[in-house]
Design goal:
Layout lengths: L6 H18 L3 E6 L7 H16 L3 E6 L2 H10 L6 E2 L2 E2 L3 H25 L4 E5 L6 E5 L8 E6 L2 H8 L3 E5 L1 E3 L5 E3 L2 H12 L3 E6 L17 E3 H10 L6 H13 L4 E6 L5 H7 L6 E4 L2
Parallel strand pairs: 1-2, 1-11, 2-8, 5-8, 11-13, 12-14
Antiparallel strand pairs: 3-4, 6-7, 9-10, 13-14
Length: about 290
Amino acid sequence: MFNDFSNSQRAEVLTQALPYIKRYNGKVVVVKYGGNAMINETLKKQVMEDIALLWLIGVKIVLVHGGGPEISEMMDKLGKKPTFVDGLRVTDSETIDIVQMVLAGKVNKTLVNLLEMNGGKAMGISGMDGCLIESKIKDERLGFVGEIVKIHISPVLDLLEKNYIPVISTIGCDKEGNAYNINGDTAAAFIAGALGAERLIMMTDIDGILRDKDDASTLIPELTVSEARKLYDEGVISGGMIPKVDCCIEAIEKGVKNVVIMDGRVPHSILMELLTDEGAGTMVMGD
């Protein structure tokens, strides 16, 4: 713990972080946070503390969040059983109301409040505000599950210009006023691309990309888009990792410099990634 260090050791840690602070000062970093990485309340507070710290040293943080477990919990309380097709939540008209209530309400405002309590200046919006995430129906079988048509990035740029941390819940909309449940990883990739972000950090509940999914020591620290595509063919990237890596490639093709998949359950993983030599997780880069 930092509190256990002597004053000289603390000074040394801060000095070593200086090149990274200079590198990211004034740069846009998009953080995707959600799913099982959000369940532990103590860890959630710590992650928001880390994000507030990055904002305080001049990083332009954009926080994109999901909240699948919270949605399922609320559905359970209301006596509605979640249904999934190909890993996507079937979202009827009643469920999309619950999604809006949980994501744009409880989850979004909780994160905003935690950031403010730690010295950040945050503003919560949804993908419906300013038609930020313009969407259409992805598959009739899924109901109000959306596919992104276009990102109207102006609301996010306005908040960054006024030195806020935009906190974005992943609900899309169409021009007829329908709301859509949007995959959080996909939304983060599109938003990071629209911003030309320096980095997209995807905080998940896995270590990163592993050569052997059952052996954490086989973590691949870095790979290019071409190398990632070879790993698809080799079966190394399979199952639930496929859509995550697809989002990494999508973000890079849209102009993001690099994307990191990391375990958001590891304390201070985001600080290790941005402010140390060690890094965290797997970084995917352009060729």
